[in-house]
Amino acid sequence: xxxxxxxxxxxxxxxxxxxxxxxxxxxxxxxxxxxxxxxxxxxxxxxxxxxxxxxxxxxxxxxxxxxxxxxxxxxxxxxxxxxxxxxxxxxxxxxxxxxxxxxxxxxxxxxxxxxxxxxxxxxxxxxxxxxxxxxxxxxxxxxxxxxxxxxxxxxxxxxxxxxxxxxxxxxxxxxxxxxxxxxxxxxxxxxxxxxxxxxxxxxxxxxxxxxxxxxxxxxxxxxxxxxxxxxxxxxxxxxxxxxxxxxxxxxxxxxxxxxxxxxxxxxxxxxxxxxxxxxxxxxxxxxxxxxxxxxxxxxxxxxxxxxxxxxxxxxxxxxxxxxxxxxxxxxxxxxxxxxxxxxxxxxxxxxxxxxxxxx
Amino acid sequence: xxxxxxxxxxxxxxxxxxxxxxxxxxxxxxxxxxxxxxxxxxxxxxxxxxxxxxxxxxxxxxxxxxxxxxxxxxxxxxxxxxxxxxxxxxxxxxxxxxxxxxxxxxxxxxxxxxxxxxxxxxxxxxxxxxxxxxxxxxxxxxxxxxxxxxxxxxxxxxxxxxxxxxxxxxxxxxxxxxxxxxxxxxxxxxxxxxxxxxxxxxxxxxxxxxxxxxxxxxxxxxxxxxxxxxxxxxxxxxxxxxxxxxxxxxxxxxxxxxxxxxxxxxxxxxxxxxxxxxxxxxxxxxxxxxxxxxxxxxxxxxxxxxxxxxxxxxxxxxxxxxx
Lengths: 359, 323
Fold this sequence. Notes:
The complex is a heterodimer. A seven-stranded parallel beta sheet of chain A has the order 3-2-1-4-5-6-11, sandwiched between helices. A two-stranded parallel ribbon of chain A has the order 7-10. A two-stranded parallel ribbon of chain A has the order 8-13. Chain A has helices at 12-23, 57-63, 83-103, 142-160, 182-188, 207-219, 236-242, 252-264, 272-280, 287-291, 301-310, 316-335, and strands at residues 2-7, 27-34, 46-49, 68-71, 109-113, 165-171, 173-175, 192-195, 201-202, 204-206, 224-228, 234-235, 247-250. By secondary structure, chain A is α/β, with parallel strands linked by helices. Chain A is globular and about 75 Å long. Chain B folds into two domains: 16-63; 75-318, 3-Layer(aba) Sandwich (Glycerol-3-phosphate (1)-acyltransferase).
C-alpha cells in the first residue's frame, strides 16, 4: 500500500486525480498539495496548503511517509506578465520538490506531468513525434522550456538516487467541458482566427483520459517518458467547429502582426509558438502509452472536441453551414438522384481512422 | 394559405419563397452545366456524375462527415475533388500512357521510386492519378514531400489532404508498415530544379533512407520511370539571386515563365509515359540489412540504374515529345 502526494491539487485536473487515486487499488492515502485553497472537491484525499518552495515540504513528505509523488502543478502562464512568477514556480518549485523527494529514502517514485508542447510545431515535423524525438524546427515557448528543464532535473534526480523511479508523461492539449486553458478558450471562441492556407493536424486528450493516464502512471511501475494523446487527428477548422467556435481565416503575417500589437497593449495574447501550432499542429506516437503504460483512452480526438462543443451554445455560423449543406444536396439531387441526402457513398479503403481502438 | 395575426405564417411564406428561389437557381446551374458539357463534347451524364459526386462530397465536408487519418490524408477529398481536377490534365493535356501497372501490388505496402523532373513537381501528382486509375481497387499513392511543401500556404494544406507527408525515415516507415503504397522522388529539388540540358539524367539519390525503410518493413521496391515531365516545363536558367531572395531552392526561367506571368505556369502539352518496373529482387535481404550502409547503397544504385536504363529505352520509343 502506498501514500501519494499530488501537487497542484486545487486545480480541476489535480483534484480529479486525487479523488480517483483514493479509490485506486494499492493506494491507501492521498495528500493534495497546493498554494491555494481547493476549488474542487477532493473526496477522500487530505489537503495541505503549501507552496512548493516551502522548506516544510521535506517534513510533510517525512511525516506522511509519502512514497509516490505525482507532480501536476507545472503551470502555463496565460499572459506574458505572469511569466516570471510561473517560471519561478515551475522551475525553482520543482527543484525544491525534487530535492526534498531525493532526500527522503521512502520516496520510491516520481511522476511528472510535462507537455507535448516540448516538440514544438513546424513544417519540418515528422507525422508523429516519438518520445525520442526532439523539436525539429519548432520554437518552444516559455512553458515548454520550463517543462524540458524540469524533465531533465527529474531524470538526473533518478540517476543520483538509487531506488527512485522517474516517469514523465507528455500529454497533448487537455480538453473537456470543465477545463479552462488558452487552447480550450481559443477553440470555443465565437471567432477563432485560423491561419489562411494551413490546416493544422490537431490531436488532443480528453480530461477524463488525462485523469486515467495519470492514475495509471502513478500506480504502475513503468519508467521513462511517455506521450499521451487520444487516437486520431482532426484538422484545425473542423476542430474549432466541433468545439463550438467559428473559424475565421486570417493571413498568417497579418495575424502575427495583430497578435504582436494586441500583446503590447495587453489586450489579448497569442504567443508565436501558439501560432506555429495553429499552422502545423502536431501528432504523437502513442505506442509506449498503449504498450508500456497499458493505457487506452476512452475518447478519440474527435469525440473529445465534440464533448467540448456539446457544452457550448451553438454559433450562428452553424446554421449557415447547415443551409449550405442543404443547397449542395439539392443540386446533387437534380444531377444524380442516387446521391440524395446521403452525404453519400462511404469512401473506399477508408475505415475512419478516428474510430481508433476502444478497450 | 391563411394569414393569422401572429405573422407566423408570414415567416413561412418567406421561407417558401427563398426555397423556390434556390430551386430556380439550382435549375439554372444544372442547365449551364449540361450546356457546357455539350459544348466541350463530353457526355453529359459523365460530367453530371462527377459533379454530383463532388457536390455530395462538398456536403459531407460542410457537415463534418468526412475525416482525415493521422497523417492528415483525406481520402474523400482526394477521390472527389483532388483527382477529378487533375484527371483532364492527365488524360487530355499529357495523354498519359501507363506501362507495367501490374507491377503495383494489389494490397500491402510497397515503395514506388521515381525520377523527378519538370521544374515544378507535377510528375509526382500525375503518378498519383496513374496509380489510382490503374490499380484494380483504386489505391492511393501516398507521397513523401520536402518540408518546403508544408511551409507553403495552400500547397502544404492540399498536399497533406491528398496524402503527402514529410520525406523522412520515420514517416516512410510508418506508412509502409500500415500497408500503404508510398511514392518517393529521391532526387528531390536536385531533380526538378536541374536545367533542361540535363534532362533525363538522374541526379544523386538522396541518402538511401527510402531503401532502408523498405528493407526494414519488408516492402517491395517498384522502380518508376516517367517520361514527358522534363519537356512540360523546360528550365532554361535558374535565377539564383531571385531564388535566394524568396527563400526558394531555385527560381526557374522557362520559355513561358515568368514573363507570361501566371499563364507561364501552364505546362507545355507533352506526351507522357509512366512506366512501373518489376519490383527489385531483395531475396536474402532482411530488416537487419537496413542498418548496413553497403547493402543500402548497393540497392539504391540498383534502383537508380534500373530507372536510368528504362528512361533511355522509353525516350527512343516515344520519339517526338509533343505528338
